[in-house]
Description:
Elements: H1 2-24, E1 30-36, H2 55-62, E2 65-67, E3 70-71, H3 76-85, H4 89-92, H5 100-103, H6 117-123, E4 127-133, H7 145-148, E5 153-157, E6 175-178, E7 181-184, H8 190-204, E8 212-217, H9 236-260, E9 267-273, E10 282-285, E11 288-291, H10 299-302, E12 306-309, E13 318-320, E14 324-325, H11 329-336, E15 344-347, E16 350-353, H12 360-363, E17 375-378, E18 385-387, E19 390-392, E20 400-403, E21 407-411, E22 417-422, H13 440-450
Parallel strand pairs: 1-8, 1-9, 2-13, 3-14, 4-5, 4-8
Antiparallel strand pairs: 2-12, 5-6, 6-7, 9-12, 10-11, 15-16, 17-20, 18-19, 20-21, 21-22
Helix pairs in contact: 2-9, 8-9
Amino acid sequence: MNKLIIFFLLVTAGCSSSQQESESEPARPNIVLIMVDDLGKEWVSAYGAEDISTPHIDALAQSGVRFNHFYVMPQCTPTRLSILTGQYPFRHGWVNHWDVPRWGGKAHFDERRNPSLGLELKKAGYNTCIAGKWQIDDFRVEPDALTRNGFDAYCMWTGYETGIPASAERYQEPYIFTKDGSKTYEGAFGPDVFTDYIISFIQEQQEKPDPFFIYYPMVLTHTPFVDTPDEEAEDKLGKHKAMVRYTDKLTGKIVQALEEAKLRNNTLIIWMTDNGTSRAITGSYQGRQLQGAKMRMVEHGMSVPCIMSWPNRLAAATTSDALIDITDFFPTFLDLAGISPRKEWQVGDEMQTIDGHSFKEVVMNRAPASNRSWIMSMGGGNHAQLSDKGVENKFRFRDRALRNLRYKLYIDTQGKAEKFFDMQEDPGEGVNLMDSLNTAERKENFEALLAPIATFPTQDNDPRYIPNPAQSWDVEQSVESQSWKQ
Length: 486
């Protein structure tokens, strides 16, 4: 009898221990990354927007964490490349925008020369899906670009392909690339096509044992300003609001699809945007009128919404001051996939530096802050240029901004400190403190933010790629004076 009791106690203790381990370290989560195009905090009501209501996005925030200090790059291409590589633009080279399908120049995102998040998650055993906007490869030249970057399933706007007028359309009558090739989807609204594709992928995952990664870089809310299937408006502001409301609606549809497939409980959803709002739009935010700051090196051009939700893991209805920037997604997602973070990543025969820091402990609700003392943004304004050497950056050392919880330091194109702000007392960045480092606290924070500059290369890299074959539509000179679309 005593032996039976001892056996029972041992078994019970073992079950209890296993349960504790399961609670502290759940199965590898599904990851859904939703990235909205061109939208700042002033257009998300959960962040204090006063001219719009975004109930589905707000509900996502209520189910998880709203981050206050999340940095991206202030324009399209640099942010997207930093997601994929875990590197700052000075390292991966895409410091400014370059529209590959439109301008070509033999350029492309080359996974043979760069870390690639989708590829690494695929290697880690994840089922992978992408839908929306890529724009860093020309699918006419590289129809296998997304497969090579690790995506099992894809449904993408092609980007504006020079010589194919229909390809300019991402909204009404969208021109979309899938495994069946590229074509116009007559009578369709592009964001619906992409969202429905993702929902179908979610439904297919119900019976599969492996986790999945969905990357949804939305085409909304980028210009052109258009009517949606739900609303028509007379002016650009009205159309912009309609596009934001439609973005909110599609966010709700994806969350609902995860719930109906009974996959929500072990799915981490990250909802964020790629840069600030178009400068053509002004919104009311926390009692201020904010003009959109896309491409501008100011706070609302680079500090964008970021909401994370994971039921029973991330605390609900909370805000976080954790310092996180866009380079952190690569190491964090791989950390969640069971691959320990490391600062050197092998790509082909080359070892490359990863700039990002894993914030897994924040996601697992085991730490209130990330292991960062600063975050950074760079690459506003001008886009890249083409020379006989390929796509090159205009500046050898692009200006950048670093901030901690309270202070922010701007560095100019010579690598010198230019502006220093107290973001707690002066969130509008109106008073430059460079000549007022007259307290120990200011001096200490200034020096702490300046110190990383000495660890950066003295010259930014240009994009790393093995050139594609020349195409008839490649530009033959800098596109600096040409009109362009992101």
